[in-house]
């Protein structure tokens, strides 16, 4: 029986050429799998047909938007995941979503190989290959762009020679990846890190400098999950979509940074993630109100490690699973409402209320209702500071 | 010989009353010490005279602005110190500055006691007392507001009875602390955490929503120290002052949060720190360009612990000293220029350049100059992911 | 109705006196609660009767040995909990066990207060009071030894005056606390930290220097739980008891250290914990075989923080709960057998086998069966080391 | 001019064959560099001559024993470095020592390449290549055993064909690496992890089970450096050598573990490190006496990360340098004497004394000299536990 390759198919030049290229190199049949993670752009049916036209024996389009929102974006929100304290892991979250779909498709279609179109210097190759290896160690991975000399010039030549239905001249000056959680732009004139971004490169967000009226929103969370916006119940996907629109209209969620890639180099990245940034900002403040101090302090380190792991392609890994168990417990009390003003590029929390609040007006107030027993403080300070005080006294004597 | 008390003197009602109150309780002479850490407000000479008028035997005004900037704000900048990832430690940095001045004054004036006017539910009492205990374990600390029943009503009665030169009716609805690194506002209607801040409470920053032209600034750092702004050499103090003005004029640096106090309660705090936020934002991005990935990852945890320690009053402590040694080494390569746009409440980095840059265009580019050897990636991924892959494969078999 | 106090009762002088002392001070009735956590010593019925003879209106003896083993020692084993990398938290684990029993008894007997006999410089007062406050914030805590002047001399006078059935002359030169997880000895000549311990102070362990034959044991774990010894099924309590006996007979588990107390001082402590040390040693090595590298690395930090929290009296706390969730997940694959030789004070692992083993002979071997693809290493090293290599090259140029 | 290769030369089969093999493959001249890091075994002059006999144009023997002890073992001692809490990094410390010597030799002898004889599945290849890349990015690295098909069979054939002066039949059943800091044994029947080690494989240590008299030793440290043994001044090297002898004679320092290699596999390792274990054990306890609690707690995490970095071949890296700065500061007060009994496989601390001691008898004692103010404890507990208490109370209400 002819072997089969499941190919992660985007509809673009590289993966369209991969269909014939891999077939030629391996003699295998190609099953193209295009995942809809909310990237917008071309109609998914057009993409599906293009794969067939390029020679795939099967072409499948999967609507993974809810799956992506619920099982990948939501854990990231529970972690308040921001790689390098800034980047909400846009591409890093979609890759394991796609990996799982590819592996499932390989099982269903009897494939023994999985192919992807990543180059050899990005993070995504790692996310694909470590993920596939974790879920299905028996599947062989093919990466023709990286491993079998499929350069852009060769790809164009291949496409023209075979009359593939792709416009080989259509080439963005940027490399772009987008999904419902956000949008990443890189390369082009951005590779000079002294150059500022220009307005042209943005798509999910309006110019924050344009005068407009602010938008006030109330987000309701239940155990870390956004469950309502302005009182209307929402799914996770709906929450992201609505906030992408509303926060995006206010220019919220633009990021421009130099980033540490897993493969050892630094790269310049511009991101837009209006919904993700609005949600994370809101939830962080709700945590300030509902999560106990020592848990909150420790959780920051957990969030950082979680973000690094997922950025590094280790979504499917034992440490990730154990950190998720920690985060599930830590998010249990994160319920309540956050009121937020979206305006001029900023998402600013202005109010918080929660049945789970640990903020106690009677302990905090300096007014008449004060119930805090100040006589306790002297003893606290004496013992809290004792180990430092003794040590610093010793060191002072040594000087 | 009569014993002496060095009193941390602000010129306000509480510490003015403390002069006579402590004298009455202890029979000691009071040496008032007022520290100028850039808080602005009343003329320091007026404050100096008021202490004498209230009964102090000596009244000293110390200009600690450069000391504060160089020895307290600068280490905080080297740490990118943001407590709870947001608060730049405004009050937490001034307290150890003042503690050191108080201890020095106690030595100079032969005092055996040090007094402060803090209440028993804030962080500052801890910062004063742990700090004094660390630097001078022999000095006794007096805290009349907390420990000897000096309530506000009693203070007013005491002031009126003795005709102290203080306007006892002047009472801000808020509790405010400010210095050159920032400004903190609390209590009043802010104690209801569902209430948003109103424009009135701000002083260091203009309304970010007011339309105005953006301001572009280039900050030059040398080993983590800001040494020039727009090419003009600056001291640390000058850098903060200029950026307070320019970033403040654009509404940059407002914060509104519920915060975990050391004494175990949560409190609502509003901050303004335009210069601090602009400097930290700039330096973080310069670190993205100049600091190696693993060091950068570890440093984030160090910054968090540093911020907690300093917030918790442990400025003078062995762990703080050891973290400073780490940070000094980590900041060594953080040199170069950051270009930043200040506008509408945001400080946005738009360019970075550095002799110490680890961003290598030739490794990062996808253009013809690319020198990255992509053939290395396959082996990297294979071994990098192996431990996870084996473990996840085991776990899949167990299911 | 007369108020009631539930008193943590040990049968010794201090808590016996507390019965009458608290009654005299508060007018309340005393319900004595003695918990059996495997401390051995006096018959629990004798202790029960003594409380009545000292004036308690109710006297309850609770056999908490299984509860202590299953719900306190076992989580500690899952954490491999060793405070300061050495101390297996003997007393720190029994206190929350007792706290929970006291609170349950208070509910059952309608008490509004809980009393304990701790002094003001140890860790146990914190464990009692923070624990009670967490489980039952409404219960008032009484600590007469610390707070109402009940010194030893006054306690003896009180006992003699009232003819309490206690031998007031019986005083160990040491302060001792023991339970099934181990035994702690402090004070006396040990307070001079240059003095070595003498053989007399030990009770759970034989002299390791005495020549004897070694004992070989095989411990079977299932998901971190010891389930069999030498093939015989055991409960957690039975596992500890058997290993206390067998490892104790070989002198295993003695510790002598200077320890950082929560109240800010350092103290000298001698411990014996043969069963605990044998179990932790065995499980650590089983983890080496069954836990993935990155999870294992992170877990070490979790274990340390867990140990600090529990030592510091924060058993009942949100961070502890979240760390437990992490540890539960991390222990899932820790199943298999560990063979261990107990001899001359050492518990030495000599063999490990597990269905969950991640040790793969075919990858590890240098023999003919080797399946490790060495050609992958070059690429791995190139990219793994790249960020360091670039940074060190930069730094070398700067010199 | 003919190119030159500096070859890390051990005198064994593999590196002896490398001389001719590399010459044949590259046409380059070989400069053999043999480093004496205290491995003992063959006379270094014999090894030097052998390289020449095998075709090297230069053969250099470097006595790096003091360099190794002072600049590699000592920083490890300052870190109390134990990878996976057990392994004192024997080979991981010698590799950067040798790397630095190779790079220096390459500069001196005009070499453009460096060669090593490591296989592709161990850690040492990483340590060599990342280290060389960090110190001298321009030098090309050759690894013929891994990259150019130099299997053992081919090496033997090559040696016999060219009559190289090596006994090709001499093959230990184990793979052994040793230096003054310790000795590593792997492979052979140890690859079955259920097999216990046999007495034959040990060389640095006597059988701990053999009855003998204990040995008592007093080690004096100054800022973390061992400076005297039993009152006699020692260099770092002398300290290690003497303790290797004395602790080794008592069977101290044997380790048997399954270890996580950097290349992703688990391997079974047996180590002997009597001097290292004795020194680290002594210094850890001296730290318990002289290092402040919060610094000590943080330092444990630093030690773990330091050990992982060095194990992973990142000795020459920015994070390692910054951690060293932390450790240097943390070790400053670690001065004083530790008395220790070496016996039956155990190094047991029995006494500690130090001018820098933070153990304060008057605070710790329960005797009459007690100066600890117990009245402070109530307030301490109240505020220390408040955040947990409030949160647990909330959670109890939710149930």
CATH topology heading of the largest domain in chain A: Rossmann fold
- CATH homologous superfamily of the largest domain in chain A, by name? HUPs
CATH class of the largest domain in chain A: Alpha Beta
In total, how many beta strands of chain A? 14
Tell me the fraction of residues in β-strands of chain A, as a range: 15-25%
Q: What is the alpha-carbon Rg of chain A in Å?
A: 25 Å
| Global mean pLDDT of chain A | 95
Give the termini distance of chain A in whole angstroms: 82 Å
* SS field, number of helical segments of chain A: 14
Largest sheet of chain A: 5 strands, parallel
Oligomer: homotetramer
- Biggest interface: A-B, 99 and 99 residues
Structural class of chain A: alpha/beta
Give, in spatial order, the strands making up the sheet with the most strands of chain A: 3-2-1-4-5
Unreliable residue stretches of chain A:
none
Globular, elongated, flat, extended or rod-shaped: what is the shape of chain A?
A: elongated
What is the N-to-C order of secondary-structure elements of chain A (H for helix, E for strand)? EHEHEHHEHEHHEEEEEHEEHHHEEHHH
Number of domains of chain A: 3
The portion of residues assigned to helices of chain A is 40-55%
């Amino acid at each position: 029986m002819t072997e089969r390759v499941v190919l992660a198919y985007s509809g673009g030049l590289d993966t369209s050429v991969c269909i014939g290229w891999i077939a030629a190199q391996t003699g295998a049949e190609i099953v193209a799998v295009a995942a809809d993670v909310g990237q917008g752009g071309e109609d998914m049916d057009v993409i599906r047909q293009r794969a067939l036209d390029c020679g795939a024996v099967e072409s499948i389009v999967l609507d993974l938007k809810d799956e992506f929102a619920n099982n990948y974006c939501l854990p990231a929100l529970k972690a308040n995941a921001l790689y390098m304290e800034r980047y909400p892991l846009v591409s890093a979250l979609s890759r394991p979503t796609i990996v799982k779909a590819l592996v499932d498709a390989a099982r269903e279609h009897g494939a023994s190989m999985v192919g992807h179109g990543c180059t050899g210097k990005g993070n995504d190759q790692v996310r694909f290959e470590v993920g596939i290896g974790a879920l299905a160690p028996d599947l062989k991975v093919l990466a023709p762009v990286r491993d079998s000399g499929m350069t852009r010039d060769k790809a164009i030549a291949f496409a023209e020679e075979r009359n593939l239905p792709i416009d080989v001249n259509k080439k963005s000056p940027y490399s772009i990846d987008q999904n419902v959680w956000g949008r990443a732009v890189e390369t082009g004139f951005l590779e000079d890190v002294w150059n500022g971004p220009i307005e042209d490169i943005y798509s999910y967000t309006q110019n924050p400098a344009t005068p407009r009226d602010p938008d006030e929103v109330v987000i309701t969370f239940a155990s870390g999950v956004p469950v309502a916006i302005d009182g209307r119940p929402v799914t996770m996907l709906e929450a992201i979509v609505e906030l992408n629109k509303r926060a995006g209209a206010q220019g919220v969620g633009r990021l421009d940074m130099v980033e540490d890639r897993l493969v050892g180099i630094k790269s310049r990245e511009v991101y837009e993630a209006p919904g993700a940034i609005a949600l994370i900002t809101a939830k962080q403040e709700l945590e300030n109100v509902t999560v106990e101090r020592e848990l909150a302090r420790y959780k920051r380190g957990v969030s950082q490690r979680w973000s690094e792991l997922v950025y590094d392609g280790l979504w499917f890994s034992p440490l990730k699973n154990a950190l998720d168990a920690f985060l599930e417990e830590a998010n249990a009390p994160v319920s309540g409402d956050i009121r937020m003003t979206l305006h001029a590029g900023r998402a600013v929390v202005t109010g918080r209320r929660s049945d789970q609040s640990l903020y106690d007006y009677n302990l905090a107030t300096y007014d008449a209702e004060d119930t805090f027993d100040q006589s306790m403080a002297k003893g606290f300070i004496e013992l809290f500071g004792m180990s430092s005080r003794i040590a610093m006294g010793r060191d002072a004597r040594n000087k």
